[in-house]
Amino acid sequence: MPGLLRKIVIFAAVDGLILQSAGNGLRYNGNGDSSSIRIDYKTNRISSLPGPASDLSERKDFAGLETYGLVGLLTVASYSFLITITQRQQVAQIQGKPIYSIANVAVIPTSSHEDASRAIVQAKENILQGEECDDTDTPSEDTDISDAETDGSDAEDINTAPASPVQGSCHPRNDSISSNITENMIGKKLRFGRFAANWLSRKAMGLPGLSTAELETVEAESGSIPMVEFKEENPVAARSASAANTEELPASASDGESSKGSELEPPVDTKPIELLPKLLRYTKLIFSSRNFFFSYDYDLTRPVSAQPTAMALNGRLSLHKAADELYFWNQHLMLPFITAGTHPFVLPLVQGFVGQSEFTVAAKSGPSSETEPSEARILGEKQEAEDVQTAGEKRNFLLTLISRRSVKRPGLRYLRRGVDDDGNTANTVETEQILSVPDWDSSHNIYSYLQLRGSIPLYFSQSPYSFKPVPVLHHSPETNRFAFERHFRTISRRYGKIQAVSLIDKRNPELKIGEQYEKYAQELNQSGGIDGVPLGFEWFDFHNECRGMKFENVSRLVGRLKNTLSEFKSIVVNNGTVLQKQTGIVRTNCMDCLDRTGVAQCAFGQWALERELKEEGIDIDLGGDSSTRWFNILWADNGDAISKQYSSTAALKGDYTRTRKRDYRGALNDFGLTLSRYYNNIVNDYFSQACVDYLLGNVSTQVFQEFATELQSADPGISVQKLRQNAIDTSCRLVVSDQSEEFLGGWTLLTPHQPNTLRTLPFEESVLLLTDAAVYSCRFDWNTDKVLSFERIDLRSITRINYGTYITSTLTDAQSDEQRNFGLVIEFREGDNNALRVNTRSLQSEVDPKALDNQWDMSAWFTSSQRNKTRIMAFKALPLSNSVTQTQRRKSATVSETDWVQNICEEIEHAMKAGQRTTANAESRPFVVEPAEIISLAEAKKRTGLLEHLVHDIKKMVWA
């Protein structure tokens, strides 16, 4: 595409980082956007450089680094880092356009000239170290790819050498860029802590998708001509993960001084982020994991039938503007460049998988077995293809597999499950299988088949601390129904008809959630379906149907859905015209949407490929032909990639997907992967999830403060405010039984685990209700949206209300903040008008069953001897602002915890005074609402024992 820079050189100038097109000076795209910009060190503002600037590559006073493109600008508090692509690997070519995976990135701080120069020099040294491992000489291209023609001939030939020296098989893991930067930050005495320093010394993290799935080379059997033979001489077909296909940008003679012994100066007046070193390391590792793909000319975010036209790209439309935001992974990191209008620098990335295999088939004698050729075949075939093919005639094809991970509800296995408030599901991946001829001749049909995977569209969770975790359903039926229907209506607008396939067990622990899934599907159809079209639902008990490791029995599922699959069809494109559309999609899920889903999707893909080849006059059984192992390997590599991105390990059952065989070795390998997943679930995934949410712009910088305190982060897809308001409404409806009472207000606060105490851990989130007659403290089950118990305190029994500092722990700075840790204590006399009741439907009553009063049990009426006793009820304010709300309300001011608690106290005081005025002949009782420390910082330090410090330090050492 004109204007999209294939290669960018980055210079550390005195007044800012300068980015300009590499080779043949500066160029401009169709919109007049300059391909030379500056990032100011002080403000991080991106501005275009006017006019044709001089080539800075010859300047000895500038440190320059050539890159293959930008990932984006990462900003954390007042720190910013430019992420650039320094290595790439060509993995496919689609319609003559190269597709690359990112093999390595450099992280360049933009805080000062010295810091940027040092990072650039380090990146160049790392490239040189990689070149020293190359024992072979590889010629470079004669022309710069960015100077090629734009009519389709500008793409690199898949067999030609890339634009820079090709590296050999020796690729040392170079993490020194981010490691050196962050270690220097620690050296400047910023408060990152000893655990952050300890973390930096670790060599491996086990983070998701950080090891490349090596793609196996399949050799054709000698001595016979198989029905399908694998063409090894084509590097795309072989799809080897050898580093011979990995490109590293050449490092010119280094300009600038060595970075050894120097320190990174932080910006002035900045507040350091405790986990910044770990975030930078994770950012480098995740983008170097070979799980991100890009193309300069092809839109990987859209199917082959929805590609932007050449006229649109040559006109006003930039590639990133045509990209589908659902799969545009680095859009948030690219926002500074998009806002500045520097469109040539905006390179969309897709997370997922891209693989390709060329194969040869021998057509059988006679015409196609179809009695009536399809409409697409009649319109799309060339005249010579209509003739009867002779026996043994060979034809070459190319199979391309593209998986796109959605940026909605992203994250890792047990931390992102089910659906969110917008109907997005976890681990949503669109997979496209494309069949074409190797040279992508537009006169030949191009077939595209789409599939979808995604978590069960209900609110549920599973504990990461169990090998066989039990799914726990959350929220009310109405809340689940709304999200369920919203999810499928969104899919229907995108794909048409839907066939849902559930592969979970019809026995515990998966039975309950499977039954709920089926129930909501039936209710949706009973209410009219999706715009009058019923939702297809098929429950295939995978483990039962395929017991004994007979995974080939998944063909039974394909057989059940054969009519539906035929109805949905595939996409057929010829000469740029869509001859046939896919009218529906199969949406497959198991519990994780990984292993069982991968086997089933491979079977559906096999069915589609056989049908498409039959359209071409070739009748073949891919499952029964041993020479079609290339197909299994391609799908197995796809499954491994998606599994690593979601669960940190390769997919289970991968041996069957590759070989169509299952034995004890595969079972033992799966057991080892299960153990690895278990470790990552309870150790690495928590911080990784916070990083993913931050890189996608779903949370603010505060997510790292929250993680340092709680060792977990909020779910941006779930509205906590909505859940809390629902809890208040539910509690009010159930516990305020007297219709004469007027509801005045409700709040959610933290309260000690044991009543009548100030500091009984753990603190629980409860609901406080206020009417004109009483105060209600309700303990709420947030999983089932039910009130477990409540205590009613008559306003006339309240003798004192104190509000002030309420610190329960001093383990972190956030927990020791006297302004944010604020609460109130209500002191009251026990009497006849006060009551404690327990919901016997959710919690077994400890009193005489004869005393049960319908749903609620009066567990204790206070006796006359208790009337003179005084009790307390303590409440602590929840954080009113977190990483999610800060992102959603960046410009709106929030009330402080101090003001919020004081407002609650005033509301209670007003209700008490109003009650006194309206009560006839009521005895005037003095009561006091005044500020007073509940637990001061000094007292909290005394109460926080060594054991708590030890436990917290151990947790932080493991998780943070």
In percent, how helical is the residue content? 25-40%
User: Can you summarize the main beta sheet?
Assistant: 15 strands, mixed
Decide which structural class fits the backbone.
alpha+beta
Count helical runs: 26
Binned strand content: 15-25%
Please tell me the overall pLDDT.
75
Shape: globular
- How big is the Rg? 32 Å
Indicate how many domains the architecture comprises. 3
Based on DSSP secondary structure assignment, what is the total number of beta strands? 33
Biased composition (Acidic residues): 131-157
Protein name: SAC domain-containing protein
Organism: Aspergillus mulundensis
Domain HSac2: 718-873
What attributes characterize this protein structure?
960 residues, alpha+beta, PH-domain like, 33 strands, phosphatidylinositol-4-phosphate phosphatase activity, SAC_dom
Describe this protein's structure:
This protein is an alpha+beta fold and 960 residues long. Helices cover 30% and strands 22% of the residues. The chain folds into 3 domains: 8-226 and 243-347, no CATH class; 351-650, no CATH class; 720-959, Roll (PH-domain like), CATH 2.30.29.30. The protein is built from 26 helices and 33 strands. The protein has a 15-stranded mixed beta sheet that branches. The two termini are 43 Å apart. The relative contact order is 0.08. This is SAC domain-containing protein. GO terms for molecular function: phosphatidylinositol-4-phosphate phosphatase activity. Residues 718-873 form the HSac2 domain. One of its GO terms (cellular component) is endoplasmic reticulum.
